[in-house]
Specification:
This protein is mostly beta strands and 731 residues long. Helix content is 1%, strand content 38%. It has 2 domains: 394 residues, 7 Propeller (Methylamine Dehydrogenase, Chain H), CATH 2.130.10; 302 residues, YVTN repeat-like/Quinoprotein amine dehydrogenase (Methylamine Dehydrogenase, Chain H, 7 Propeller). The longest helix is centred in the N-terminal third of the chain and has 6 residues. InterPro entries: TAT_signal (IPR006311), WD40/YVTN_repeat-like_dom_sf (IPR015943), Xyloglucanase_GH74 (IPR052025). Belongs to the glycosyl hydrolase 74 family. Keywords: Carbohydrate metabolism, Glycosidase, Hydrolase, Polysaccharide degradation, Signal. It comes from Streptomyces tuirus.
Length: 731
């Protein structure tokens, strides 16, 4: 999933000393100017249903109904069999620790069902903080944390491999952790401390490192992702100290990278899936092999070899991804293809140790009525893509699940499949609009899944993704304040990058034309108060464009600051505003976007994370939210700004219905009033703030967007980077 990357400063703020142990959730210091909300707000997801890459799913081998899922940027979840939904386990991760919301690996202890371990770290790049290990004795209800001195990469290539974390089969106090660039780590105190141990393959600063750890009886195997296809890529230890290459292992391009492995204890066979790249993208070859551990004999059991030709003549290239064995039936297992775009990925099942296979896709009946967006604008859904996470219930041989780039499908009869995704929300939200009238209280714009019209907050939108055209990632969303039935959107689409709606976002029509630059760099878009003019921005270095005929024709606006985000006045249709962060200048137009002139100058420059907002129902009442320099307000259309003294950092700002007896809209902010980065509400024009989230509800980086509901006092919507739309209401 594509995500926004916070600045280096916010990353470094979350980097702690290696091997420090703290209890979670931690309590941040509350600002003196703010009042802690305590339990004064109830927080829930606005239901979309998955919408992100499920990178791992793990059934507990000895506890019926217990399972865990991990995601690349949205944390980890526990399956609650009683309520048939996933319970988020890492929402307590705060702003400074945003890099820990990606889960690299997870592990359970077969002998102790209440124990759970997570290896966290979204990026292994120089600008990202180090990883951490969370350990729980109560299935993730509470945690203890150990910060590592190495980086992990849950949202990088290879994120569907694994698991890279393992409880040693001989000793529940011993854990192994495979890293991408720092070799093998070992803990002998249940994850409290970690030490590097000797491993035969040398780590590199750019490679995949250890891709998987799996127990086969009392032997631990480790996959190595940096082989050239001729050298060893699977190692083992029988004593927990000495590692050796597994003899006779397969070589060649189709067996270059071990992706996943599973052990059949009945037949004493280890199954390994391979590809020529770690995935999820970039794989074009792969295979499946099994090792009879009692004799050391290897056999290839690949269901279908990549490289054939589809019915339309396309090359059928792919790798292999997930693998899971049936704990009840010897020789029964499932494996998945991955990156099979021409013929669509599938899950294969064998009941005879891989001698013959059946493609479960061929007779699959997919029911996506609970999450209609999975049709992707077509008549019916496809089986899925990016299938690297596969699970087989150890207590139910016909309960199979597989993760995709957007959901988790499950079956109970090997034929009928439906998303098993309730409670798991992973969208990266980019825009939020809460209309003042109409059926929907919320319209959202996301990475990868475009725009959604939320008729209800408790069910996935019945219309799915906004179509005509369907967008991948949404880049802009705007509503005409004086004509809220008119909405425009922009994003990355296959058939145009902009669209408009005359019914509040229910149905859409593409712009008749679009500027040439829109094809390669669609950016933020705004409509003026009465919907008669559109302004479209296209990123740094590109001029903005204007349309006065609903997108039929476009003209360049030379005086518009390149790359700025256009903002429309909510009352006066002749006025637009834009903030030029390169010069620290506020520019305004009073001729419906034809020309822009400078007003306030000398404001903060170079602040890449900023937002310009206009208070609803008030002309020229501007608020400038700046990450590094706090919050500023103008009541004269941007001619001058005054710093708001009640906060020192503001990341995103929005407005909602005024409190009873108040004349000004409620102001909502993600920011810092002193030392605590949190979600705040002000009912007195930002003179004072009340913190409305708590330490259990922080969701990592939440600086993209926030919007109050203009019809419901106290309700606020927050766009997260991996936990979808969170909305809170007073209780």
């Amino acid at each position: 999933m594509r995500t926004f990357r916070p600045s280096r400063r916010s990353v470094l703020a979350g980097t702690a000393a290696a091997a420090a142990v703290v209890s979670l959730p931690s309590v941040q210091g509350h600002a003196r100017a703010a009042t802690s909300a305590g339990n004064g707000y109830r927080w829930r997801n606005a239901v979309q249903g998955g919408t992100g890459f499920i990178t791992g799913v793990l059934f507990h081998p000895s506890c019926r109904g217990l399972a865990y899922a991990r995601t690349d940027i949205g944390g980890a979840y526990r399956w609650d069999d009683r309520t048939d939904r996933w319970i988020p386990l890492t929402d307590h991760i705060g702003w400074d620790d945003w890099n820990l919301l990606g889960v690299e690996a997870m592990a359970v202890d077969p002998a102790h069902p209440d124990r759970l371990y997570l290896a966290l770290g979204t990026y292994a790049q120089s600008w990202a903080g180090n990883g951490a290990v969370l350990r729980s004795e109560d299935r993730g209800a509470t945690w203890k944390r150990t910060d590592l001195s190495v980086k992990l990469g849950a949202n990088e290539d290879g994120r569907g491999c694994g698991e890279r974390l393992l409880v040693d089969p001989r000793d529940s106090d011993t854990l192994w952790l495979g890293t991408r660039h720092d070799g093998l780590l070992k803990s002998t105190d249940r994850g409290a401390t970690w030490q590097a141990v000797s491993f035969p393959a040398a780590p590199s600063a750019t490679g995949q490192g250890i891709t998987l750890l799996v127990a086969a009886g009392r032997t631990v195997h480790a996959g190595w992702g940096d082989s050239d296809g001729t050298s060893a890529n699977l190692y083992r230890t029988t004593d927990g100290t000495t590692w050796e290459a597994v003899p006779g292992q397969p070589t060649g391009t189709a067996a270059k990278v071990p992706i996943r492995a599973a052990y059949d204890r009945h037949t004493r066979e280890l199954y390994v899936t391979y590809a020529n790249a770690p995935g999820p993208n970039g794989q074009s070859d792969g295979s499946v092999h099994k090792l009879r551990t009692s004799s050391g004999k290897w056999s290839e059991v690949t269901p279908v070899k990549p490289g054939g030709t589809t019915a339309d003549g396309s090359a059928d290239t792919f790798g292999y991804g997930g693998v899971a064995v049936d704990a009840r039936r010897p020789g029964t297992l499932v494996v998945s293809t991955n990156n099979r775009w021409a013929d669509v990925d599938t899950v294969y099942r064998s009941t005879n140790g891989g001698r013959t296979w059946t493609s479960l896709k061929d007779k699959a009946v997919l029911d996506v009525s609970e999450t209609p967006y999975l049709k992707w604008g077509a008549d019916k859904p496809k089986f899925g893509w990016w299938i690297q996470a596969v699970g087989l219930d150890p207590f139910d041989s016909e309960h199979v699940v597989y993760g995709t780039g957007a959901t988790l499908y499950g079956t109970r009869d090997l034929k009928h499949w439906a998303p098993q995704i309730r409670g798991l929300e992973e969208a990266s939200i980019r825009q939020l609009v809460s209309p003042p009238t109409g059926e929907a209280h919320l319209i959202s714009g996301s990475g990868d899944i475009g725009v959604m019209y939320h008729e209800r907050l408790t069910a996935s939108p019945s219309r799915g993704m906004a179509s005509n055209p369907v967008f991948g990632t949404a880049t802009g969303l705007s509503l005409a304040a004086a004509k809220p039935s008119y909405v425009v959107r922009a994003g990355w689409g296959d058939n145009g990058n902009g669209a408009w709606s005359n019914d509040g976002g229910k149905t859409w029509a593409p712009f008749t034309a679009q500027p040439a630059v829109a094809k390669s760099a669609p950016g933020p878009i705004a409509t003026n108060a009465d919907g008669s003019v559109l302004l479209w921005s296209f990123g740094t270095g590109n001029p903005g464009h204007r349309s006065a005929d609903n997108g039929a024709t476009w003209s360049e606006v030379p005086s518009y600051p390149k790359g700025a985000v256009p903002v429309a006045d909510p009352v006066d249709p002749a006025r637009f505003y834009a903030f030029d962060t390169t010069t620290g200048t506020l520019l305004a137009s009073t001729d419906r976007g034809l020309t822009f002139t400078a007003r306030a100058t000398g404001l903060s420059s170079g602040d890449s994370e900023f937002q310009l907002a206009v208070a609803p129902g008030r002309s020229g009442d501007l608020w400038l939210s700046l990450k590094w320099n706090g919050l500023y307000r103008s009541t004269d259309g941007g001619a001058s700004f005054t710093k708001v003294s009640s906060c020192w950092a503001s990341y995103t700002l929005g407005f909602g219905k005024a409190a009873e007896g108040a004349s000004y809209p409620a102001v909502y902010m993600v920011g810092s009033t002193e030392s605590s980065t949190a979600v705040y509400r002000s009912d007195d024009e930002a003179k004072t703030w009340t913190r409305i989230n708590d330490d259990r509800h922080q969701w990592g980086w939440i600086g993209a967007c926030i919007a109050g509901d203009p019809r419901v006092y106290g309700r606020v919507y927050i766009g997260t980077n991996g936990r979808g739309v969170q909305y809170g209401e007073p209780v």
